[in-house]
Amino acid sequence: MSPPDLALRAPLGRAWTALPAQWRRALGLLALAWLGNVLLFAADWRAMFLQWWDSSTYNHVLLIPFILGWLVSLRWREVVKVAPQGWWPGLVLFAGAGFLWLLGDFAGLSLATQLGVVLMAQASALTLLGPRVSAALAFPLAYMLFLVPAGDELIPTLQTITARITMALLDLSQVPAHIEGVFITTPGGYFEVAEACSGVKFLIAMVAYGALVANVCFATWTRRAAFMALSVAMPILANGVRAWGTIFIAEHHGIEFAAGFDHVFYGWIFFAMVMAMVMVLAWRFFDRAIDDRMIDPDAIAASPVLGRLSGFAMAQPRALAAAAAIALLFAGWGAWANSLEAAIPARIDFPGVPGWQQVDYAPQSHWKPLHGGASHVLLGRFRDGAGHTVDVSYALYAMQADGHEAGGFGQGAIPLGGGWAWERSAAPLAGGHADRIQTAGPVHRLAETFYRSGSLFTGSNTRLKLRNILDRLLLRERTTATLILSAEDDIPGQPSAEQSMRAFLSAIGPVDAWMDRAALPR
């Protein structure tokens, strides 16, 4: 062993031995609990890490573990004055987190499974350290939630907000513009507020940064709340200004120049300026002195509420064993359910449609719905003698799990990165979920989505998820099918999308029965 290694390990060893025995035991058990969490739910932690590493939206999460260590270090001198204890009510929260993981696993919802494993890590700390220590470490424990890569679900909403802000600014700057959903047409060109332009990356990072600053730099809750509101509002407004600026520059200097300027200035400089502006605006309102203690151990010890809660004590080794048993129960239940697959035919095909013929699939602009993990996928175009034309996408799933979700995020008629964007909601024609979508051209489509699982027939993704979860809780093997009917719209000399789809729906009869026939072997 080299001298530098000895020099490094000696202070760490002295710090460990200087801890009270009860703290060494509690930290050792907590380390075992967290290690077991990572090993038992390795797939979820690996999926989270890959998102932190590969997705620019979540690259900032790579800093969160180091921030957590720093936050604990700010409190550590006072925290060790509080005695840790085992606390059995923490097991109730641990079981709740495990059940959330199980539901997410059954629904194929990675956000729920990843949130579940992080909540189990938090509940482990509460169970093994007790309510008083957990109160002292409340913010670092809560800040662990930022480990969960969440926020992509906000993309469609942020696209719409950005487009509306852009239109308002274009009107103020007297640039003629027309908007359809997230597509904006001006004399200088045709623009889309795409997923990458939604501003979700900066918003997510700014919320995590805002929460950190609110805790470290503010002592009063009203100022913390005001700073968090500013941290949410500023990136949304700034992204609208960014989109407007790109279009405004394109009007005067061309689209190519605007695109290059957007990536260089707005991508690297503009949002740094916004973050600096937020700090400048808030600086004079900071009310926590740099040498203020982050927690008050005397107040924690004297708290009557924490005193009553501390009465529900439990031996820490028994608490760890109980948590391990709960985690194994849910992991085993999930593994059993995931091993179940419904029987499906080796080959399927579209049922016949009276008066309609299947023709070559040749849309104006390529459209291919996403059915990730489906056992069978069919995509075809049907036309009748009156010129009505409908595109049909059908998918049959033997199971519903992560990577095999009929109604998962980014699945269906508007896949992320597929070149199509949501324009507006539409009235359903046959009880499904209808959207009007658009791509460059512009080319418009009307699309209606239907789900079928057992006796359930719905256009609601939520109802489908609930049915899938119930089936897996009860260990039932059941297929799930998705049907998307779509037609191109606004084509001169051809029937409207609604007319074509109504004609097709009339020809196939009850949609649920037609979907069932499509699942039969051919």
From TrEMBL:
GO MF assignments: peptidase activity
Transmembrane segments: 26-45, 57-76, 88-121, 133-151, 200-218, 225-245, 265-286, 319-336
A GO term from the CC aspect: plasma membrane
Protein name in UniProt: Methanolan biosynthesis EpsI domain-containing protein
GO terms classed as biological process: proteolysis
Domain (Methanolan biosynthesis EpsI): residue spans on this chain: 323-510
Subcellular location: Cell membrane
Domain of life: Bacteria
Membrane topology, from the record: Multi-pass membrane protein
Swiss-Prot/TrEMBL keywords: Cell membrane, Hydrolase, Membrane, Protease, Transmembrane, Transmembrane helix
Alphabetized InterPro entries for the sequence: EpsH-like, Exo/Archaeosortase_dom, Exosortase, Exosortase-1, Methanolan_biosynth_EpsI
